[in-house]
């Protein structure tokens, strides 16, 4: 198993110093509660994605082995780290009940039927997912002045970037076997961006909100989501996201520089509205 980074402070995602959390800086931050709790649901539910991906890539021992031994383990660890933080800072929140409702809902939509038609294009879709998660945690780290939460977010971001690199390498591997045109790659990018915005985060936030407030009142939930989007938008690394999304297109460097700005603006609009 790969070693986990400590950033010089001696702790990892397996050994979080919850005793050092500055509760005064975070306990009354409703925004951070929702952002962290919803993220914990999505990360732990990676077990669903792993099963689906392993089934899809059953004919490739390298990909299957990495998914089972590394990707799933690290994603679930992210969720457990975030859950531990939520339980420590907001102990009154019934995390198991909210997650059970989320899982029952989310598992109905997380199926292999939603995957792309080829191995290469599914790896493009995975690159989109890892782009979204790594940039999300970068923005989350910028939202807080509580050092432990900022450290958790930074560590998760680093691992998500590592996942992106693996999926991109596998995309290149499959493309070498079965060339994938840029229009097909662009279609996969666009589909996964729209699906990511519509599904995962909204489902998680809805169930966190329902348990915390006793019901999922649509108007209040919509207002909360709009507030969180506006807040995250201020720190969202759109340029980083655009570069990661453009990479599978393998554009000439001059063209990539020209389109980076428009892609950054479009990405921000899709992911944050």
Would you mind describing this structure in some detail?
- The protein has helices at 23-26, 30-44, 46-56, 61-89, 95-106, 119-143, 147-177, 182-198, 200-213, 218-233, 238-246, 253-272.
- Helix 2 packs across helix 9, helix 6 (119-143) runs antiparallel to helix 7 and helix 6 runs antiparallel to helix 11 (238-246).
- The chain is mainly alpha-helical and 273 residues long.
- Mean pLDDT is 88; it is low at 1-6.
- The protein has a single domain, classed as Ribonucleotide Reductase, subunit A.
- The chain is built from 12 helices and no strands.
- The longest helix is centred in the middle third of the chain and has 31 residues, at 147-177.
- It starts with 22 loop residues before the first helix and ends with a helix.
- The protein is globular, with a radius of gyration of 18 Å.
Short description:
With 273 residues, the protein is mainly α.
Question: Secondary-structure map with pairings?
Answer:
Blueprint (H helix, E strand, L loop, with lengths): L22 H4 L3 H15 L1 H11 L4 H29 L5 H12 L12 H25 L3 H31 L4 H17 L1 H14 L4 H16 L4 H9 L6 H20 L1
Report the principal-axis shape.
globular
Question: Could you tell me the radius of gyration in angstroms?
Answer: 18 Å
- Number of distinct beta strands: 0
CATH superfamily membership, which one?
A: Ribonucleotide Reductase, subunit A
- Largest sheet report: none
The fold-level CATH name is: Ribonucleotide Reductase, subunit A
Which residues sit in consecutive blocks of at least 5 with pLDDT less than 50?
1-6
List the secondary-structure elements in sequence, H or E: HHHHHHHHHHHH
Oligomer: single chain
* Name of the top-level CATH class: Mainly Alpha
Q: Fraction of residues in helices?
A: over 70%
State the CATH architecture. Answer: Orthogonal Bundle
Q: How many distinct folded domains?
A: 1
Total helices: the number is: 12
